[in-house]
Design brief:
about 375 residues; two-stranded antiparallel ribbon; 8 helices
């Protein structure tokens, strides 16, 4: 439950004092004493006291009181004098759900550091005030030890009081001062040498455990495993020049493992196939002008030309016919004029005008047709 040790008793005591004070009105003393003597042990006052025992948000506390109504009434009318702390008597002594402040577990054992100052005042005792928990001290930053009475890893005591804990130099776990040469113990990944912490090169020892296709890189206080190059089958470092062996599809050229062009020797078995080299391998693809269909390479079909006049509209055909008849008429007129230059010029001008008109209507399509061979 969410009950905080001592809180219930404190609130209960405040409720007792408040209910007594609220009922002193001043005036007729004899009448007040008679009235208060009846109120002092009344059920009315009990209800008023219980209203302040649990905080409004502590639903478990309220639930506990509701389930223990008979025990609470027994305490109020018969056990109040010998056990003045209701919550202590109810939760700890009677129901065996709680422990006194500074204790923990089924037997309510003292927390490390004692019940008066659990964990030295610098940490939290696990399970304190309950019938569970381990009693282990979760120390604040900078403190360590079973009861948080020592400096934590990476801290030293600059002065003999609780407010002067200072961090040790980077890799030092324990030290006598803040300087690099004040180390007494090093963090993991570092070794103590003449009161200094020196980085351990795990890659040069058996401490590093990298995979078969990885290589080790030392870092401060640790190491990293990085993947070998694709060309390598095991390696001693980065790149194709640090391979132990070459992977399949690569060959040793000088000090490096380089890609093999299998297409220099491989002949693709399929008809109309050609070899295409890839990194460390190759693949067979259809030759230019062919496409793969049902696992074989078939020739791509090129649409036949529909001719220059295939896309002409009906209006354009009419104009073309008019131009054709115009040319015939002009030609006949020229012949009739027996080669007269005036009529020849008129003929050429008429042909040019009709051609220009027709081309202006479909010039884009005509040019496209000629470019495509139509």
């Amino acid at each position: 439950m969410s009950y905080l040790p001592g809180t219930g008793g404190q609130l209960q005591q405040e409720g007792l004092e408040r209910t007594i004070r609220d009922n002193f009105g001043g005036g007729n003393t004899a009448w007040e004493e008679e009235k208060l003597s009846k109120y002092k042990d009344s059920e009315t006052r009990l209800v008023e006291v219980l209203e302040g025992v649990c905080s409004k948000s502590d639903f478990e506390c309220h639930r506990l009181l509701e389930l223990s109504e008979e025990l609470v009434e027994s305490w109020w009318f018969h056990r109040q004098r010998e056990a003045p702390d209701l919550f202590q008597w109810l939760c700890s002594d009677s129901l065996k759900l709680c422990c006194p402040s500074g204790t923990f577990g089924p037997s309510c054992l003292p927390c490390p550091g004692g019940t008066e100052r659990p964990c030295g005042g610098y940490g939290q005792c696990e399970g304190e005030g309950t019938r569970g928990g381990s009693g282990h001290c979760d120390c604040q930053a900078g403190y360590g030890g079973e009861a948080c009475g020592q400096c934590g890893l990476g801290y030293f005591e600059a002065a003999r009081n609780s407010t002067h804990l200072v961090s040790c130099f980077g890799p030092c776990a324990r030290c006598t001062g803040p300087e690099e040469s004040h180390c007494l113990q090093c963090k993991k990944g570092w070794a103590l040498h003449h009161l200094k912490c020196v980085d351990i090169d795990e890659c040069g020892t058996e401490q590093a455990t990298c995979g078969a296709d990885q290589f080790c890189v030392n870092t401060e206080g640790s190491y990293e495993c990085r993947d070998c190059a694709k060309a390598c089958l095991g390696c001693m470092g980065a790149g194709p020049g640090r391979c132990k062996k070459c992977s399949r599809g690569y060959q040793q050229v000088g000090s490096k493992c380089l890609d093999v062009d299998e297409c220099e020797t491989v002949v693709c078995p399929g008809e109309n196939e050609q070899c295409e080299n890839t990194e460390g391998s190759y693949r067979c693809v259809c030759a230019e002008g062919y496409r793969q269909e049902d696992g074989i390479c078939v020739k791509e079909q090129v649409p036949e030309s529909a001719g220059f006049f295939a896309e002409m509209t009906e209006d354009e055909m009419v104009v073309l016919q008019q131009m054709f008849f115009g040319v015939i008429i002009c030609a006949l007129a020229t012949l009739a004029a027996k080669g007269d230059l005036v009529f020849t010029a008129i003929f050429i001008g008429a042909v040019a005008a009709m051609t220009g008109y027709w081309l202006s209507e479909r010039s884009d399509r005509v040019l496209e047709g000629f470019i495509k061979g139509r």
